[in-house]
Records
---
Amino acid sequence: MGIYNCASTLVEALDSLYAQTYQDFKIILCEDGSTDDTFEVAQQYASRHDNIVLIRNDKNMGLNYTLNRCLELVDTEYVARMDGDDISLPTRFEKEIAFLDNHPEYALVSCPMIYFDEHGDFRTGKATPEPIKENFIHGETFCHAPVMIRRVAYTAVEGYTVSKYLLRLEDQHLWLKLYQQGMKGYNLQEPLYKMRDDRNALRRRDFKTRRNEAYMRLLICRTFNLPWWHYPESIVVPFIKWVMPRSLYKRIHRLN
C-alpha cells in the first residue's frame, strides 16, 4: 500500500485486511510525504501488529515510485494491492489466492469493485473476464487496487515505470508491460473490493490526469498496432472528460 493523505480512512482500510478469511500475510506500507497525520496513524496501527512493515519517502514522489519501494521488501509468492481509503471484502485474499494457485497460466487476478461515497454504495462495476488488446484502449482491463499479482511477474517487468506522464496511469502501463512479455490476467466476476469514490476522488481527476490518459492511450495504440481511428479518439476522449462540467461527469460516471 502506498499511503498518502488518508489519515481519516487508513484504519478502516487496514481493519478490512485483518477481517480477511485468509490471514497469512504481511502488510508493507510506504507513506508518500502526506500533509496530514497519515504517517502517525500508520505508526500507531503498526505498533499493535507485528506483520506490518512501515517505510516513508522523504517527500511526495507519486504512486509508481512509492509502490516500487514497497516491492523492494516483498518476499512472498503473491502481491496484493490496496489503497488507503478503500475496503477489501472478507473473502478477497482467499478467493484470489485460490485462483492463482489453480491457474498457473495467469500472472494476475482482479475483480470488479463496489463504488461508495459518504452516502453509501452507489454502483457495482463490471469486468471482462479475460481482457484482450482491444480492451486496453478503453481502460477495460483490470482494476488496480484489488489486484493480486505473482511476484515473479512484477520482477520480470521491473515493477512500475516511474514517469510523470504515467501518474494515475501506472496500472495501465503495468498491464501493457506484462502483456508485452506474453503474460495475461483474469477478472473474477464477483466484487471483492469497495472503492471510495467521493468528491475528493473526483477532484484528483485534473488536467494532468487527462493529459496522462491521452499519453497512455496513444502508447497502447502504438504498442498493439491498433487501427488508425483509435489515435484521434485517444486525444479527444480525455479532452472531453477534462472540459465536461464536473456535475455532468459525476452523473455519467455513476451510471457507467
---
Amino acid sequence: MFSARHLILVTMLIASLGLTGCDGMTDDLLPSGDDKRPDVEAGTIGTQVGQLAPDFSLFDTLGNSRGLYNELSNSTGVVLYFTMWCPICETHMSNLRTEVIPNFPTVKFFLVDYVMGTIEYSRAAQEAYGYTDIETLVDTDQQVFNLYQASMGTTVVIDSAGNIVRMNEDYKDGVKLIETLQALP
C-alpha cells in the first residue's frame, strides 16, 4: 500500500514526465506577456488591431438591420462585446452598464449574442437578464463571431474612421477598455 507521501511523489514524477514530453511547450508555463501576433499593414481590411474593420450587418433584437459603418457615421466609435448570457458575461455587462457606458455617450455599445440563434430567443435572453437598455445584435450564424475570431467576453473597439483600436481582448474589469475609449479622437 502506498503512503500519502509515496502517492505525492509518484504524482509529481508523472507530472514532470508529462511536461518533459511537451518538448518546447514549457515556455507556456512562464509566458512573457509579449504580443506575439504578427504586425499588420495599416489601412488594410481585417480584424486585427490597426486594420480597418470589415463592414457587417446584423439584426438587433427588435428586428432592425444594423450595419457597422452606419453606426460609425454618427458616433465616435463602436464597442462590440460578445456575450453568451452566462454568469461571467452578466458580470461584465453589469460593469459595462455602470462603469463604462455612462461615461462615453458618443460611443455606440453593442452586445453581440452569438449563441441564441434567433432574434426571438436573443430578445428573450436580453429581457430575462435585464439588458434591454443596451442594444443587442443577433449573430444567428456566428458570422461576425467567426470574422472577429471572438470568444466569450471578447471586446472590440472600432474608432469613427473604422480602425480597430482594441481587438481580441477578453473583458476583465473595464480599466483597459476605459483607457482605450478615452484615447478615441
